[in-house]
């Protein structure tokens, strides 16, 4: 069985802050990490590999050359092969363009049974690339997977809903997107880290390595374009109550009562 | 593609087990406003089985037109079934914009449809408008976990698609006398079109109020420290007839249910009073509650961002403040 895990290197948005004076994003010193949901996708692939014989896990990432670090981390966790898609002409692609590039690379890899993605990346938060890859490949999809079983060539997945879940069955090949509830990603071993950073080779593909219509990707080929971006405005109006806890609590209680009466 | 051929605003009216999802009505409300600016109509797109009552409800909430695609195969949501029916209808009738609620279903359906139609999709929008000159849809959404807002256009492709955050837009008042035109069609779908099989639909009964509907919310964050720490918050919420909610930190620690998460990756709420306890006020959280009518912050740290965003803030330990407030409110009640 061949599993392809699509991964993205992202800035840790928990660490991204806004400069209160300039109103701009402070990204200096913000660490880059494997997108959290993608880590769950990789972990699930590694668990399948442990459970069944003859499973190959290939990790695939599109991004600038430094995204290689995320792939090395994936190798250290136990992935068999790593491919990075890097080309200036890929830059500026929206989800439609990005998914087309990744789907083209998946087509080139070929002979896969499962494509695993994270539900969404924490920088863009769109949750679109997984389903769009599935559409470009003409495959069924199950998103928001919180539990996964493989029986022969059939997939049985729990698909999370706001108020419960669906149990969905389908046949491979299939595209799945993972959520946090699916598993707890492992830590890489020391030996794994050493090997991944010293010994292993990462395959680099540029635009000439995949079959793709260059007019449909990048800034120009993408259907959506960012017209402007700005930092959200907040209404700062605060009044801080001082005094003893009793006094302050009374003031709060009176205010709440006023609001309750309307 | 001649974009002038594309007319009208469509909204996807999501139903689950024959129950209309609230966001569909919010989309009609917003869709109507956009349609007015474009000089066109808002059409609700309903897929399901035995859902005639829902079709009528959509009209009562302001849909100028309802297209109801009926088939037993559409009873439960499947990506394949819904995407096929919707894409076929879009290709035949050419709407200029489609709004989809950013629910667990909408976020599965939207990208599948946009990829098939080779058009643009903007995710989880919190602002929608029409450019007065170009008439393009202006789709505004948070990115970087709510740290940045982006306004996005899909100028050269149609339909312009957007998934929309539930709870952001207002629904119209229900008016049964509205004369929306309901067109029921038999959906062009076969069992073999659907490659996945929904084996089981499981609802997890949760002992929680819909935080989007609550008038009073007592919300806890990292500062609460434990699941047990939420007990005083619950007591205050019960006293006010409201509900408990939490920040992402509280959800990730398993202290409150995911359905009760307020913020960028949770729900947007606008209660009468929002009481934030032990919440630092990261922008991701503020994005989900800043439009509350009245915000009260209780925090040990005077410098926490939430203190500035609140109408009233008290520096102190919630463990002392909340029981005191409960006692004061009880005293006022008598």
Model description:
The complex is a heterodimer of chains A (262) and B (334). Chain A is of the alpha/beta class. Chain A contains 7 helices and 15 strands. In chain A, helix 2 links the parallel strand 6 (56-62) and strand 7 (81-85). In chain A, helix 2 crosses helix 5. The mean pLDDT of chain A is 91. Chain B has 334 residues and is of the alpha/beta class. Chain B has 2 domains: 3-193, HUPs (Rossmann fold); 216-333, TPP-binding domain (Rossmann fold). Chain B contains 9 helices and 18 strands. In chain B, the strands form 4 sheets. A 7-stranded parallel beta sheet of chain B has the order 7-11-6-1-4-5-12, with helices on both faces. In chain B, helix 3 (79-93) packs across helix 4 (106-117) and helix 5 (231-240) packs parallel to helix 9 (318-333). Chains A and B meet through strand 3, helix 3, helix 4, strand 9 and strand 10 of A and helix 3, helix 4, strand 7, strand 9 and strand 10 of B. Strand 11 of chain A pairs antiparallel with strand 13 of chain B. Chain A: Pfam families: ETF (PF01012). Chain A: It comes from Clostridium carboxidivorans P7. Chain A: Residues 22-214 form the Electron transfer flavoprotein alpha/beta-subunit N-terminal domain. Chain A: This is Electron transfer flavoprotein small subunit.
